[in-house]
């Protein structure tokens, strides 16, 4: 046998691949296979990138692969290339990108043997969630561990259960009889495809609702996508409610008709939007695709479920994968179309670890595979808009709302200064006209939505007598008053304290909340609009798993008259009975020093306005502002994305800002601000000494706006260039130097940063 070596990527920050001898007879090594290898004193899971007949590592230093995952097909060359690109572009190690992109089950060798084996599992039912913790006697320790494992993961595989408790099967069966858990068995081996038929379906084609008659613009869009050949990036610019989803559905249906085995990836910005999309896709493809050919991928799935869905995509069994940004790294061997809905959404940018843009990676995958990619939005990112302006993306426009009777809402600006000058009544920040409009909706049985991008009761608690303000002991930030939770909470580090009864500095008992968050508005609405059923949706009210879904269902079911919420309620939801949208406190974002703040605010306002009047009820938007003459509000009132985008682009061009330059951000975290700044100064010096220095410019290092979080001081250094290639080359050359610098706790480098 010729000696055989493999080069393996491990989840480790250094870029190099590690050489190992491959001693196994079978299976033959192949790039894309997972292996278990010794690494230092421990075992690690790695991914083979290369196979070779020689190694430059001295024989006595070479160690051997211990085990290989033979049960699931190796990752494809294309997938490895995707990882390679992402690692290179975002300046990370191959393994640091590859391994975290895989579900936990694949990174756990003890589970390899059964990855695709038939599975029997039990899932907790709501009754069980309540009853189980109480039902077991304290001394039944093993049984309690079993119950806990089940409650933690929501479901438990029979093999895992038996490992916890030899008689697990009997207990689980008795819990099933009690109505606490349900049993399910899945056979992965039984490959299914649309062609093989006989698959289980929730509905049949006959039951699904009749298809909409497409508008001319929709028809044109669908045809353009289906007629494209090779790499074809589309920017689907459709006003809110114009039926972009319908375009995706038709394009996918056309694709699957033409290529019955093809796979598609559909990305949405928020977990909370997946159920709405999933339902639409299931209904549409019932009778065309088997039930399990549509899967979701997002961080809200239980670990086992996520692994199953991922494997379904990897084996080709899943044909449509619907997910949040992490799904962009899914292995899809027959990927033939990609869709990124609400492509402008900042949530597509991962903010830790590998700081990738899922939208950008989706476009890269489309290019790699020479397939179409559809980026949809009512307010495209200026980057994508600019690509379309230059003809690099094909623009498809939906200029009207899809539902015949639905028109875009009218937008009214309520001048708060004027309201005050004229002595008009307001209540807790809710202006007279807004309150009157909500009352009118209540009478007509329509819904109102109040958008306020600030959760909690009040952002500040302060003492009038001495000027004390409740701050976080660990961060340079005020703490937010949370009334229902009776707590002061830091939104940056999670620090919590009870609300003090008096000022800790001077003893004054008249300490008062300043400013308003969603909780305070929720409270105010109860008296401002008597009789209205008010519901708040924000990160606090939806903390429990699944609760967001329940709350949104209440809205859809008409059990709510006024919905108040943060940007969670602004995005994508197809509310049928909302005819009024009220916007509070948007002014805060007008004076940010982040050059993207206006783009973001405009998109947010257009999105939330787009929730009004979707199903034919005349919609109205009321924006409360002190700056009614601000250009953003004017563009909003005219629904003028194009005018807004073009004027922003002109400003960006004059100011040499993205998309006309390329940026990267080096962030450092130190025990002191001085340490962080010193690190960045050294880094900047090293940068200036590099051969490409003339093509790359570094700004001065500055502290972050919230300089201290969790007792760590943070600062950043912005680097930019008018050439992407020059920036990339410079960053690559800079990294080894950065790794050699000391004096800070952590640092990271972000390419194409969004928050500056
Ligand atoms: P968008 O994503 O562009 O905001 P949606 O795709 O949610 O819009 O569509 C808005 C509404 O219009 C949905 O209720 C959808 O069912 C409906 N719709 C879409 N296309 C049509 C059509 N051609 N005729 C009638 N209604 C349509
Ligand atoms: Zn005081
Ligand atoms: Zn804090």
Secondary structure blueprint with pairings:
Layout lengths: L4 E6 L7 E4 L12 E6 L2 E11 L10 E2 L2 E2 L8 H13 L4 H5 L20 E6 L1 H10 L5 H13 L1 E3 H7 L3 H10 L3 E6 L29 H12 L4 E7 L5 H15 L4 E5 L6 H12 L8 E4 L5 H12 L5 E4 L11 E7 L16 H12 L2 E6 L4 H8 L4 E5 L11 E6 H6 L4 E2 L2 E2 H13 L2 E5 L8 E4 L16 E3 L4 E3 L6 E3 L12 E4 L3 H11 L5 E4 L9 H10 L5 E4 L1 H4 L7 E6 L13 H13 L10 E6 L5 H7 L3 H14 L7 E9 L2 H16 L8 E2 L3 E8 L2 E10 L2 H17 L5 E6 L5
Parallel strand pairs: 2-5, 10-15, 10-16, 11-13, 11-14, 12-13, 14-15, 17-29, 20-27, 20-28, 26-27, 28-29
Antiparallel strand pairs: 1-2, 1-4, 3-4, 3-6, 7-8, 7-9, 18-19, 21-25, 22-23, 23-24, 30-33, 30-34, 31-33, 32-33
The structure holds adenosine-5'-diphosphate and zinc ion (ZN) (2 copies).
CATH fold assignment of the largest domain: Rossmann fold
> What is the CATH first-level class name of the largest domain?
Alpha Beta
Strand share of the residues? 15-25%
What is the tally of beta strands? Answer: 34
Name of the CATH superfamily of the largest domain: P-loop containing nucleotide triphosphate hydrolases
**Class from helix and strand fractions:** alpha/beta
Tally of discrete structural domains: 5
As a whole number of angstroms, the C-alpha radius of gyration is 28 Å
The largest sheet is:
7 strands, parallel
Instruction: Count up the helices.
Output: 22
Bound molecules: adenosine-5'-diphosphate, zinc ion
Strand order of the largest sheet: 12-13-11-14-15-10-16
Family: Belongs to the helicase family. PriA subfamily.
Pfam family, one: DEAD
Organism: Paraburkholderia bannensis
Subunit structure: Component of the replication restart primosome.
């Amino acid at each position: 046998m010729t000696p055989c070596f493999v080069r393996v990527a491990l989840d480790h920050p250094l870029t190099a691949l590690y050489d190992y001898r491959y001693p196994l007879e079978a299976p033959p090594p192949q790039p894309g296979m997972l292996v278990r290898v010794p690494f230092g004193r421990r075992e690690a899971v790695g991914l083979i990138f290369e196979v070779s007949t020689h190694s430059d590592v001295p024989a006595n230093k070479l160690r051997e692969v211990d085990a290989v995952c033979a049960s699931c097909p190796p990752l494809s060359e294309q997938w490895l290339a995707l990882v390679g690109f992402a690692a290179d572009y975002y300046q990370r190690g191959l393994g640091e990108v590859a391994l975290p992109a895989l579900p936990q089950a694949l990174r756990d060798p003890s589970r390899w043997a059964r990855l695709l084996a038939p599975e029997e599992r039990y899932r907790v039912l709501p009754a069980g969630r309540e009853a189980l913790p109480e039902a077991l006697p304290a001394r039944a320790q093993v049984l309690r561990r079993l119950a806990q494992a089940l409650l933690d993961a929501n479901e438990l595989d029979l093999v895992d259960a038996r490992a916890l408790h030899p008689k697990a099967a009997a207990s689980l069966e008795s819990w099933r009889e009690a109505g606490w858990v349900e049993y399910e068995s899945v056979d992965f081996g039984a490959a299914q495809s649309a062609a093989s038929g006989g698959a289980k379906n929730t509905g049949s084609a006959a039951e699904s609702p009749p298809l909409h008659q497409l508008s001319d613009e929709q028809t044109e869009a669908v045809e353009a996508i289906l007629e494209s050949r090779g790499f074809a990036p589309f920017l689907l610019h459709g006003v809110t409610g114009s039926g972009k989803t319908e375009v995706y559905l038709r394009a996918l249906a056309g694709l699957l008709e033409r290529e019955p085995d093809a796979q598609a990836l559909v990305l949405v910005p928020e977990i909370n939007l997946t159920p709405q999309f999933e339902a639409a896709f299931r209904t549409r493809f019932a009778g065309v695709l088997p039930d399990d050919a549509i899967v979701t991928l997002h961080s809200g799935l239980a670990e086992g479920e996520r692994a199953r869905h991922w494997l379904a995509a990897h084996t080709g069994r899943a044909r449509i994968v619907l997910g949040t940004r992490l799904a962009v790294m899914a292995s899809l061997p027959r990927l033939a179309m990609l869709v990124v809905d609400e492509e402008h959404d900042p949530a597509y940018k991962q903010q830790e670890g590998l700081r990738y843009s899922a939208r950008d990676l989706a476009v890269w995958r489309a290019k790699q595979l020479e397939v179409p990619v559809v980026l949809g939005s009512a307010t495209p990112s200026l980057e994508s808009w600019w690509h379309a302006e230059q003809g690099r993306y094909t623009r498809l426009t939906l200029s009207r709302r899809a539902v015949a009777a639905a028109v875009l809402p009218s937008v009214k600006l309520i001048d708060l200064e004027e309201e005050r000058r004229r002595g008009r009544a307001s209540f807790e920040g809710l202006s007279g006209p807004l309150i009157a409009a909500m009352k009118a909706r209540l009478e007509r049985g329509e819904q109102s939505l109040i958008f306020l991008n600030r959760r909690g009761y009040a952002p500040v608690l302060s003492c009038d007598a001495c000027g004390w303000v409740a701050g976080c002991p660990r961060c340079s930030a005020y703490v937010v008053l949370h009334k229902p939770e009776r707590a002061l909470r830091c939104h940056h580090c999670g620090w919590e304290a009870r609300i003090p009864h008096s000022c800790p500095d001077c003893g004054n008992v008249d300490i008062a909340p300043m400013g308003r968050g969603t909780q305070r508005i929720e409270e105010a609405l109860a008296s401002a609009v008597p009789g209205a059923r008010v519901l708040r949706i924000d990160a606090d009210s939806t903390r429990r798993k699944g609760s967001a879904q329940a709350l949104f269902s209440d809205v859809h079911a008409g059990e709510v008259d006024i919905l108040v919420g943060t940007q969670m309620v602004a995005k994508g939801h197809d509310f049928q009975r909302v005819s009024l949208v009220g916007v509070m406190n948007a002014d805060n974002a007008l004076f940010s020093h982040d050059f993207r703040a206006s783009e973001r605010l405009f998109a947010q306002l257009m999105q939330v306005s787009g929730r009004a009047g979707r199903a034919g009820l005349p919609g109205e938007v009321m924006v409360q502002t002190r700056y009614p003459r601000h250009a953003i509000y004017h563009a909003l009132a005219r629904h003028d994305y194009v005018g807004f985008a073009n004027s922003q682009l002109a400003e960006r061009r004059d100011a040499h800002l993205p998309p006309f330059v390329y940026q990267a951000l080096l962030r450092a975290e130190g025990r002191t601000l001085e340490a962080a700044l010193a690190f960045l100064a050294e880094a900047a010096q090293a940068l200036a000494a590099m051969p490409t220095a003339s093509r790359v410019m570094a700004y001065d290092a500055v502290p972050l706006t919230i300089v201290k979080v969790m007792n760590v001081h943070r600062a950043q250094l912005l680097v930019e260039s008018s050439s992407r290639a020059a920036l990339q080359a410079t960053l690559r050359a800079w990294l080894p130097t950065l790794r050699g610098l000391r004096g800070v706790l952590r640092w990271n480098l972000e390419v194409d940063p969004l928050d500056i």
